[in-house]
Amino acid sequence: MKKTIQIFSMLMIAMTIMVSCKKDKDPATTDFFIGTYKGEVSYKKDGSTITSTDGKITVSKVGETYNFYFGSNIPDITGVKFEKKGDNSYVSIGSGLTGITIDASTLKMLVIKDGATWTANCTR
């Protein structure tokens, strides 16, 4: 019986992740979201620049907090809050983390914080 409960629990977790990762899923409409946006990304700090035309950003949302995980040795941006603008677009709010717009299909970013600049123009 214990083994059956474990298997059932694992199936439920897997189904939740699969539903949360659907490409047409809007991150604003759920409390749990994981999605990958692909496109142009860049990062600049102290005269050093990292750019990628085929970069990716994995976005996670738990509750009201978004986290942006970059590849290509670009530092992550975490703990971002958003407010609704228009139909289904959300714009970041808070000190130093403004300049991020996200919806179900696009992610655009221009963040300047602590002498560093992140940019992104990505789609899902």
Features:
single chain; 124 residues; alpha+beta; eight-stranded antiparallel beta barrel; 8 strands; globular
Walk me through the topology.
Layout: H1 2-20, E1 32-45, E2 48-62, E3 65-70, E4 77-85, E5 89-93, E6 100-102, E7 106-113, E8 116-123
Antiparallel strand pairs: 1-2, 1-8, 2-3, 3-4, 4-5, 5-6, 6-7, 7-8
Query: What's the story with the biggest beta sheet?
Result: 8 strands, antiparallel, barrel
Low confidence ranges: none
Terminal-residue CA separation: 41 Å
Q: Largest sheet, order of strands side by side?
A: 1-2-3-4-5-6-7-8
Please report the number of helical segments. 1
Structural class: alpha+beta
Radius of gyration: 16 Å
Share in β-strands: over 45%
Give the overall shape.
Answer: globular
Order of helices and strands: HEEEEEEEE
Mean pLDDT: 78
**Quick one: how many beta strands?**
8
Helix content: 10-25%
Number of domains: 1
Could you explain the architecture of this structure?
This is Lipocalin-like domain-containing protein. It comes from Pedobacter caeni. This protein has 124 residues and is α+β, with helices and mostly antiparallel strands. It has one domain (2-123). Helices cover 15% and strands 55% of the residues. The chain contains one helix and eight strands, in the order αββββββββ. The chain has one helix at residues 2-20, and strands spanning 32-45, 48-62, 65-70, 77-85, 89-93, 100-102, 106-113, 116-123. Strands 1-2-3-4-5-6-7-8 form an eight-stranded antiparallel β-barrel. A hairpin with a 2-residue loop joins β2 and β3 (65-70). It is globular and about 60 Å long. The N and C termini lie far apart (41 Å).
